[in-house]
Design brief:
The complex is a heterodimer of chains A (about 240) and B (about 260).
Chain A (H helix, E strand, L loop, with lengths): L18 E5 L7 E7 L2 E12 L12 E8 L14 H14 L11 E11 L4 H15 L9 E8 L2 E4 L3 H4 L6 E8 L4 E11 L1 H29 L9
Parallel strand pairs in A: 4-5
Antiparallel strand pairs in A: 1-2, 2-3, 3-5, 6-7, 6-8, 8-9
Helix pairs in contact in A: 1-2
Chain B lengths: L3 H7 L15 E5 L7 E7 L2 E12 L10 E8 L14 H17 L8 E3 L3 E13 L4 H15 L1 E6 L3 E11 L8 E9 L2 E4 L3 H4 L4 E8 L4 E7 L6 H22 L1
Parallel strand pairs in B: 4-6
Antiparallel strand pairs in B: 1-2, 2-3, 3-6, 5-6, 7-8, 9-10, 9-11, 11-12
Classes of the chains: A alpha+beta (about 240), B alpha+beta (about 260).
Chain lengths: ~240, ~260
């Protein structure tokens, strides 16, 4: 790997953009959070556990996790038509699947946990930033979780495998590659993995290891948000 | 309680006697519809998928004024599986089409610049429509193979004055495909801690997670998608890529 590769914003190859996490941003919801990675910002809120609507969808042996992800219309340069799209439907589903391995919904039968994730400002990595906000919101709502699922994308620019591309970096090169990954980093479990672009098997392995480091870094920032909220040791006072 | 099928998989066995890495017999036939620019029927065990390619003249996207466009859609026909119903596309159908779309698009197997008619104004749009006729498991891999085969089978129709298309007179021109970039797709499934390929329908309900991998002839990975509510470790993903390479190598021989 070319060590000399210089990033546009001087970050190291394994360095995430500056992150910020805050819980309780939607006071009327059971749980909520804002997560920011560079210029990408997501807010997420949880309604529930509550009665399932429509009732015929309820399950007697477990609760349901139902996620809605979308970009706000003004979060991108070309206005996004409001309302669900094929893209947002797919991302909503993969976000659900990224969080489920950390949850035990058998403790919440007959209910649904409805999760809403909106991107207010998009600068690459929206599904990962959305997952981080979602994971925080679930924990803030007191939904039992094994650990905070955290996510970050890995990309490839000019043959270099790099953590957390911003939009500028994402638009570089002939075969831009995007690999969003979510993990339960404490136990090394990959819960979201998507890829489009072009990588060798070796580069994929490199990307997963880089993502593991990134997910640990993101998770630390996320945990800190709760230390601040509950004013625990180590929590920085605002 | 552990099901019989799950305990078989844990012992490295399958309900139909295959090994964990065995793929069912596959037969591809082209020319399913003479009205289509290209088409393919894939019979993959008892799973059956029909893919058709239609082309029309459209406008290019603003950010790529000199490139043709591609659109992949799928319908999980209610006749194919008791669980499928008519109506707007289900999330399963959207995911299937989008994953196959990404495999084709990201591999750059179609030289979209050669489908430009007039820069900024008119380009060919290539529609790949996938119909699942019978779901006997592993429809995504079957559909991805059908899509690629139908694209290979396609002839560009005649373009008349004023960008009118004469569909009844195909030219001799095939779609501009780049052979060594053609991606083939294999999904690796996980049940318990075992990885296996090509489940039959009965095995599908025992799957904790899956990962779909699109691999080009040159061996590059072009598309991946993890599905299901389970997880993979890094080692498992690496193992899955190796298994998928073996499968896609064998698919490549069938595609020829």
């Amino acid at each position: 790997m070319a060590k000399k590769f210089q990033r546009n914003d001087k970050r190291k190859i394994d360095e995430i953009r500056p992150m910020e996490a805050k819980v309780g941003v939607v006071p009327s919801a059971e749980g909520s959070a804002m997560f920011k990675m560079g210029k990408t910002i997501a807010i997420a809120a949880v309604r529930g556990p509550r009665q399932v609507v429509p009732a015929h969808k309820q399950k007697s042996d477990r609760g349901l996790l139902r996620c809605t992800y979308d970009l706000m219309s003004f979060s991108v340069n070309d206005r996004k038509r409001p309302g669900p799209s094929r893209r947002s439907s797919e991302i909503s589903m993969v976000i659900e699947n990224s969080l489920l391995p950390a949850m035990d919904l058998s403790k919440l039968p007959y209910t649904s946990v409805d999760l809403y994730v909106y991107i207010t400002q998009a600068d690459a990595g929206t599904r990962c930033v959305g997952i981080n906000a979602a994971s925080l919101a679930l924990a803030d709502a007191g939904i039992p979780m094994k650990e905070l699922v955290s996510a970050v994308a890995v990309g490839k620019v000019d043959g270099n495998v790099i953590l957390d591309l911003d939009k500028f970096e994402e638009d570089q090169g002939e075969f831009p590659t995007d690999i969003p990954i979510a993990m339960m980093p404490k136990v090394g479990k990959i819960t979201l993995l998507q890829l489009d672009g072009k990588v060798s098997q070796k580069e994929l392995d490199e990307a997963m290891k880089l993502a593991e480091k990134g997910c640990k870094d993101a998770q630390e920032v996320m945990e800190e948000a709760f230390r601040v909220k509950y004013d625990l040791d180590g929590g920085k006072k605002e | 309680m552990k099901s019989y099928i799950k305990s078989l998989i844990e012992n490295g066995q399958r309900v139909d006697g295959r090994k964990l890495t065995d793929v069912r017999d596959i037969v591809i036939t082209n020319d399913v519809s003479t009205k289509a620019e290209g088409s393919a029927r894939v019979k993959w065990g008892d799973t059956e998928v029909i893919a058709g390619v239609k082309m029309s003249v459209g406008t290019p996207y603003g950010d790529s004024p000199d490139k043709g466009t591609l659109m992949v859609t799928s319908e999980l026909l209610p006749m194919a599986n008791e669980a499928f119903s008519a109506g707007p596309p289900s999330i399963e159908s959207i995911e299937l089409a989008r994953v196959i779309d990404r495999g084709i698009r990201e591999s750059n197997m179609i030289d979209l610049k050669k489908l430009c008619i007039k820069e900024g104004e008119a380009v060919w749009t290539v529609f790949v429509d996938l119909y699942i006729i019978n779901d006997a498991g592993n429809i995504l891999d079957a559909a991805a193979l059908a899509a690629v085969s139908a694209l290979k089978d396609s002839l560009i129709p005649t373009l008349e004055e004023g960008n009118k298309v004469d569909y009844d007179t195909p030219t001799k021109n095939k779609l501009p495909l780049i052979e060594d970039r053609i991606p083939l797709t294999s999904t690796v499934f996980k049940s318990g801690n075992k990885l296996f390929v090509d489940p039959v329908l009965e095995e599908t309900s025992e799957v904790d997670a899956r990962v779909t991998i699109g691999i080009s002839a040159s061996g590059d990975i072009n598309a991946m998608q993890k599905g299901g509510a389970g997880f993979f470790t890094i080692d498992e993903v690496n193992e899955a890529v190796k298994m998928a390479k073996v499968v896609t190598d064998s698919l490549r021989k069938i595609l020829k």
